[in-house]
Specification:
The complex is a heterodimer of chains A (261) and B (278). Chain A contains 8 helices and 10 strands. Chain A is α/β, with parallel strands linked by helices. In chain A, the strands form 2 sheets. Chain A has a 6-stranded mixed beta sheet, sandwiched between helices. In chain A, strands 2-1-4-5 form a 4-stranded antiparallel beta sheet. With 278 residues, chain B is mainly alpha-helical. Chain B has a single domain, classed as Orthogonal Bundle (MetI-like fold), CATH 1.10.3720. Chain B is built from 11 helices and no strands. The chains are: A alpha/beta (261), B mainly alpha (278). At the A-B interface, strand 6, helix 3 and helix 6 of A face helix 8 and helix 9 of B.
Chain lengths: 261, 278
């Protein structure tokens, strides 16, 4: 792989589902290594579909997707990315530690290596002491942190996140936003983040991709030039509000109407 | 860097032993035991007060006396019948589980067979008992066959449901790890199906006893509970018939509890093991 290869390269991707619904049309998008890119748009704009095309969980009807310079299917087979869904998708029959170790088991890691890595991941998401708990013994926010630890356990260069904090209350969500930025900085991975919260997208991202609904197209790309690392104060900077307004306007323009989101 | 530890949702301490939930519920049984005692007293006294004939309903004390007098015969007959139920249970449940693996794996087979399995589950299979006697003879095999068929369909239907009702995101997660169908089956579908399997096994344990006893009503050796119940009733030995029914109940309850215990041991991870919802 050449060092210049983009983390994600999407060329002319369209997706029409068997029912005839066109979810995506002519998507072109390049995401550089180490970027944090949010996909934002109204429900049904195909942002989750696009994320699944990148992860080779849905095959596009047309176009090409490369992950780290490889076709998406090859990248999936070589476990190039970790994924986090809106629900934590933890297995009740596994403890927290064993849930995190799942991808490592599948990749054939030795027990010793798994144990060390799980301990490190638990520390990363600040869940030390909970390794022997079962998922249903944790709060929603803790479950989602386990899910993030699992996605990052095998050091993937790419992290795909599908509205990971959408089901959490606002306070937990803001704390996990900070947590995620810290993890992103520590791991140096590329993150593609689906959300429908404008402020979350602006706060987290280096770029926000605004999508228009049915068929899903890229309506606008907003570069977020807020300083790094971000902190609670970032949310109070005038530039933050300007960018939020810019993304909101782009969303409404993409909507084709002045109807409020 | 932010540090925070969210409060975990309050959870009663993790069960210390696998059986803790089982034992701690002992105290909860006190009201049920009081009801049983009251019911027996009402039964006994009701017969005396209303002069109910013994062929309609014998006194509990008379049944108990008969149970003690004929214990060895009743128990050996009960054991004989239990073997039929257990044999049928093992055969029927195993076949049900194996069929569910095939049907869950190949969707087209599910579409072809599941409507019939569901229909078969709704018909009174017990009506076939005399025909199975003709097929398998009047030995233990025919009763096992009745029990096996009774067990087969609920286990098949529940297992297929358990194996296929996996959240789509779980499958996507496994595919993101490049997991094969076999791996997904072993790591996700199978554990996901366990609660479904055990609820079917509990139903099947009851059905197996019913199948064995009703199968016996249509003929077989004298050493069977069903034959004792049938013959004693026709010879006006109602206390013996009732005593045999008590043995059948004890074995049926024991069977059910054994399956529940197996469930408890193999699913200690399940939220219901907290003991709250049992």
């Amino acid at each position: 792989m050449s060092p210049a290869a983009a983390a994600v390269s999407i060329k002319g991707v369209s997706k029409t589902f068997p029912g005839g619904t066109t979810a995506l049309q002519g998507i072109d998008l390049e995401i550089g290594p180490g970027e944090f890119v949010s996909l934002i748009g109204p429900s049904g704009c195909g942002k989750s579909t696009l994320l699944r095309v990148i992860g080779d969980l849905i095959a596009p009807s047309a176009g090409e997707t490369l992950v780290n310079g490889k076709p998406a299917q090859q990248a999936r087979r070589e476990r190039e990315y970790g994924i986090v869904f809106q629900d934590a998708v933890l297995f009740d029959w596994r403890t927290v530690a064993k849930n995190i170790a799942l991808p490592l088991e599948l990749a054939g890691w030795s027990r010793q290596k798994r144990h060390e890595r799980v301990a490190r991941m638990l520390k990363l998401v600040e869940l030390k002491g909970f390794e022997d708990h079962h998922p249903w013994q944790l709060s929603g926010g803790m479950q989602q942190r386990v899910s993030i630890a699992r996605a990052l356990a095998f050091d993937p260069t790419l992290l795909l996140m599908d509205e990971p904090f959408g089901a959490l209350d606002e306070m937990t969500r803001e704390r996990l936003n900070m947590e995620l930025l810290r993890i992103w900085e520590a791991s140096g991975s590329t993150i593609v983040f689906v959300t429908h919260s404008i402020s979350e997208a602006v706060f987290l991202s280096t770029r926000v991709v605004v999508m228009s609904p049915r068929p899903g197209r890229v309506a606008d790309v907003v570069t977020v030039d807020l300083g790094q690392p971000r902190s609670a104060e970032t949310r109070e900077e005038p530039r933050f509000f300007e960018l939020v307004t810019q993304v909101r306007d782009a969303l409404h323009a993409g909507h084709g109407a002045k109807e409020p989101a | 860097m932010s540090t925070f530890v969210e409060e975990p949702t309050p959870v009663e301490s993790i069960p210390e032993g696998y059986l803790s939930g089982f034992y701690s519920r002992g105290r909860d049984w006190v009201p049920a035991i009081i009801v049983l005692v009251l019911a027996l007293v009402a039964w006994q006294e009701g017969i005396r007060i209303f002069h109910i004939e013994r062929f309609l309903l014998p006194k509990p004390t008379a049944i108990a006396q008969n149970l003690v007098d004929n214990w060895s015969q009743l128990w050996s007959s009960g054991w004989y019948t239990f073997q039929e139920a257990l044999g049928g249970f093992i055969v029927g449940c195993s076949l049900g589980i194996l069929s569910s693996f095939v049907i869950a794996r190949f969707r087209i087979l599910g579409e072809a067979f599941m409507p019939y399995a569901i229909a078969a589950n709704a018909i009174p299979i017990i009506a076939f008992a005399p025909i199975l006697n003709a097929w398998f003879g009047i030995g233990q095999e025919s009763k096992m066959a009745v029990a096996a068929i009774l067990c087969y369909f609920p286990v098949l239907i529940n297992m297929v449901r358990g194996l296929t009702s996996v959240p789509p995101a779980s499958i996507e997660l496994m595919r993101s790890y490049a997991a094969s169908e076999t791996t997904i089956f072993r790591r996700v579908r199978l554990p996901n199906s366990l609660p479904y399997l055990f609820s079917a096994l509990k139903v099947a344990s009851v059905l197996a006893m019913i199948g064995a006893i009703v199968g016996e009503y249509f003929g077989g050796s004298q050493e069977q509970l069903g034959i004792i119940i049938k013959n004693s009733a026709s010879l006006f030995m109602f206390e013996t018939a009732w005593a045999a029914i008590v043995v059948a109940c004890l074995l049926g309850i024991g069977f059910y509890l054994a399956v529940s215990l197996a469930e408890h041991l193999s699913m200690s991870w399940h939220p219901s093991s907290r003991g709250a919802s049992g």
